[in-house]
Design a protein that fits this description.
The complex is a heterodimer of chains A (586) and B (193). Chain A is of the alpha/beta class and 586 residues long. In chain A, 37% of the residues lie in helices and 18% in strands. Chain A contains 21 helices and 22 strands. The chains are: A alpha/beta (586), B alpha/beta (193). Strand 8 (165-170) of chain A pairs antiparallel with strand 2 of chain B. Chain B: This is Pyruvate:ferredoxin oxidoreductase and related 2-oxoacid:ferredoxin oxidoreductases, gamma subunit.
Chain lengths: 586, 193
């Protein structure tokens, strides 16, 4: 039976069919749906960890205990998880362990487009790259087999176009699941120098055997067609090559660490022009060149962004590999320019009130990763920087240490899920090193950006069970912050006053800006109403960047369907032209 | 030999493009096509442009359609139709919902919603099908079924039997909304714009 599955759904299915019983992840686009789907299968325990490092550590424990284990994260999550991962390569596994890294070429929903194939190479672990949903499902099982056979964690690297594209997948039966027996073995699992040196050597031996495996694995195969052009490719790039160069021979690499050197030699020796087609880094190209072959790659194919059939057609035509199309597409007539449609905070989003208040106070604001990063875009433009999960707090502290004038004018903003992911240590550092930063935790009670996943503050687990919800106020007090207060970000006056006071306090402070995500808790408050005779058309309300407010014939207009009645516009209007829905009824 | 069809569906977050692509995918599977569907999640869900690429054929490799390669562009909103018109291949089918959803830069007065989009699209693609999907959906009793009206317009232009479409629709729409959505689908299917 075949089902239409996204790459992420297929990975979850593959894990279920191959006997995975423990899974952990921190949500992150484009990886999130893997755990959401896997958690629904019987006999699988799946959890949201507070961050990716913890997820890998949970996975390591599960593997040692003998379970087949899957850990998933987006590409930048591997940065967080790199510490346990690199040493886990030394110890190796008991139950099979697969780490899914979902990379994001094209930066659809990320802060960078790092190529995590480099991580597998760096960590000295096997790397598999599926090119569609069917392969994604199969490769999970193969990754677990390889992991157990060679005693090593395996990386399965997908990209946005694999994770979020759907294709037909042959559904199989789940294998019987069992725990491998655990035997205490300090020389293998206790990485102190004396034992780590032994495992370091063992790692090279395992890699040598893996190279043999890669040479003969069905994951790596040649499709012979014409010999004029031979393409070495992997992942979704294979699909584009098949369409754009239907006459070329292709060496499709499903296992891209370690590379099958003899297979590559065989292929390279029989084609006239050798090209590597890969997204992002010249990861394969550099290794193929190091093997001594003359090869094209990034001299033709772009370094940055996603590939697609259009891009490859253009660059191959420019490079003389493809004949120019006989009938070039007719140019479109000159037309109107299309204004952009950037993502925006939802109507009623509690973050809007906080950012409007910060903008009004003209503070320097260090930002973080979440929906609230949108507060940096026009018209709010309330963020000065955004780097990675948890970075806002350290950045505010560092800026204040560098320039005392900034210390009293800088706040850090960070979401509740992000704070629990990696904000705690940053805040601890502010207290310990006698900083004076004001940290605003935007507590909307969920991991909103990735689609409302639970976290240690929500009171629920991924499996749907009730859980203790962390007490944020008590937590930050325990870290040594004495000034802790809670504000409602939809109350602008209260929020502004609180921020002004805390910034001036001269010691570390935390403001918890608390209001549930508007999509999570649908309140049915009546829409705001415009009193047309009072509106002067000053457009102050437009500075909120609310999708429900616009100007019609020089007067403010509120879309009654989009408006959630958050009343921010009522508070910013100086003319009293915007009224609460309830008042308007009276 | 199954003739391949490449369809680009574009719209604004919240317009129901995802449901429409699911019904299309199910219908295409029912008709025996190989299929790939590619969507972008994340930032784009927050009121941004939403693009779904659907490719049908005997065997489909790439999940992505090249610019100038789509057989059909189905625009759930006309500004998005304008934005993605360049994806239509010469001689392809353009279907555009005559609905205006101003993006925030327009609402904020930083940009203008272009005038005459539909006229321009008709000039560029004389065969373009322009639909008042919202109006037709309201006649069927649900403003929320505008997406299914457009799906109906698309359905008649694809070599998939009508019964397969109706079955796919029933499989994807909750029972309590099914009647309005069936009516919406038929309104779109019978539309001669």
């Amino acid at each position: 039976m075949k089902e239409l599955l996204s790459g992420n759904e297929a990975i979850a299915r593959g894990a279920y069919e191959s006997g995975v019983t423990v899974a952990a992840a921190y949500p992150g686009t484009p990886s999130t749906e893997i755990l959401e789907n896997l958690a629904r299968y019987p006999g699988v325990y799946a959890e949201w960890a507070p961050n990716e490092k913890v997820a890998v550590e949970v996975g390591i424990g599960a593997s040692l205990a003998g379970a087949r284990t899957l850990v998933a994260m987006k590409h930048v999550g591997v940065n967080v998880a790199a510490d346990p991962l690199l040493t886990f390569a030394y110890t190796g596994v008991n139950g099979g362990f697969v780490l899914v890294s979902a990379d994001d070429p094209g930066i659809h929903s990320s802060q960078n487009e790092q190529d995590n194939r480099r991580y597998a190479y760096f960590a000295k672990i096997p790397l598999l790259e599926p090119g569609d949903s069917q392969e994604a499902k199969e490769m999970v099982g193969l990754a677990l087999d390889i992991s157990e056979k060679f005693d090593i964690p395996v990386m399965l690297r997908t990209t946005t176009r694999v994770s979020h594209s759907q294709g037909l997948v042959e559904i199989g039966e789940p294998k019987p699941r069992s725990l491998k027996p655990y035997a205490r073995d300090a020389r293998k699992y206790l990485m102190v120098p004396a034992y780590a040196r032994l495992r370091r050597v063992a790692l090279e031996e395992r890699l040598a055997r893996l190279k043999e495996y890669s040479e003969n694995s069905p994951l790596n195969f040649i499709e012979w067609r014409g010999r004029a052009v031979g393409v070495i490719t992997s992942g979704v790039s294979y699909q584009y090559v098949r369409e754009v160069l239907p006459g070329a021979s292709v060496l499709k690499l499903g296992m891209t660490n370690p590379l099958p050197e003899n297979l590559i030699k065989k292929f390279a020796g029989e084609v006239e022009k050798l090209i590597v087609v890969e997204e992002l880094e010249p990861y394969l190209e550099e290794q193929v060149r190091a093997m001594g072959f003359k090869v094209s790659g990034k001299d033709i194919v772009p370094y940055t962004g996603e590939l697609d059939p259009g891009v490859l057609t253009r660059v191959f035509t420019e490079a003389g590999i493809l004949e120019p199309s006989a009938a070039p597409a007719a140019a479109l007539p000159e037309g109107p320019a299309a204004p952009g449609r950037p993502p925006v905070m939802c109507p009623g989003c509690p973050h809007r009130g906080l950012f409007y208040a910060l903008r009004g106070l003209k503070l320097t604001v260090t930002g973080d990763i979440g929906c609230y990063t949108l507060g940096g875009l026009p018209p709010l433009e309330a963020l000065d920087c955004c780097i990675c999960m948890g970075a806002s707090i350290g950045a505010a502290h560092g800026a204040g240490k560098a320039d005392p004038a900034l210390a009293g004018r800088t706040v850090a903003v960070i979401g509740d899920s992000t704070f629990l992911h990696s904000g705690l240590t940053g805040l601890l550092n502010v207290v310990y090193n006698r900083g004076s930063s004001t940290v605003i935790i935007l507590d909307n009670g969920t991991t909103a950006m990735t689609g409302h996943q639970d976290h240690p503050g929500t009171g629920r687990t991924l499996m749907g069970e009730p859980a203790p919800a962390v007490d944020l106020e008590a937590l930050v007090r325990a870290l040594g912050v004495r000034r802790v207060r809670v504000v409602d970000p939809l109350n602008l006056a209260e929020t502004r006053a609180a921020v002004e006071e805390e910034v001036a306090a001269g010691e570390p402070s935390v403001i918890i800006s608390r209001r549930p995500c508007v999509l999570l808790k649908k309140e049915t408050r009546p829409a705001a109403v415009v009193l047309a005779e009072k509106c002067r058309g000053c457009k102050v309300c437009l500075r909120l960047g609310c999708p429900a407010i616009s100007m019609k014939d020089g007067r403010a207009a509120v879309d009654p369907i989009a408006c959630t009645g958050c009343e921010l516009c009522v508070q910013v209007c100086r003319e009293g032209a915007l009224l609460k829905g309830v008042e308007a009824c009276d | 030999m199954i003739k391949p069809v490449d369809i680009l569906m574009v719209g604004v977050g919240g317009q129901g493009t995802v449901l429409a692509s699911k019904v299309l995918a199910q219908a295409a599977c029912g008709a025996g096509y190989d299929i790939k569907v590619s969507e972008i999640h994340g930032m784009a869900q927050r009121g941004g442009s939403v693009v779904t690429q659907v490719r049908l054929g005997e065997k489909v490799y790439s999940p992505l359609i090249a610019e100038g390669g789509a057989d059909i562009v189905l625009a759930f909103e006309k500004l998005e139709g304008l934005r993605f018109l360049r994806f239509l291949r010469p001689g392809g089918t353009m279907i555009v919902n005559d609905q205006e959803i101003p993006p925030v830069p327009v609402l904020a007065g930083a940009a203008e919603y272009p005038a005459g989009i539909v006229d321009y699209i008709r000039r560029a693609v004389p065969s373009a099908v322009v639909v008042d999907a919202l109006g037709l959906a309201l006649e069927c009793g649900s403003a929320r079924a505008a997406n299914v009206v457009l799906l109906g317009v698309l359905a008649r232009r694809l070599p998939i039997a009508r019964e397969i479409w109706e079955e796919a629709l029933a499989g994807r729409v909750p029972a309590r909304f099914l009647e309005a959505n069936r009516a919406a689908f038929r309104a779109g299917y019978g539309y001669n714009g």
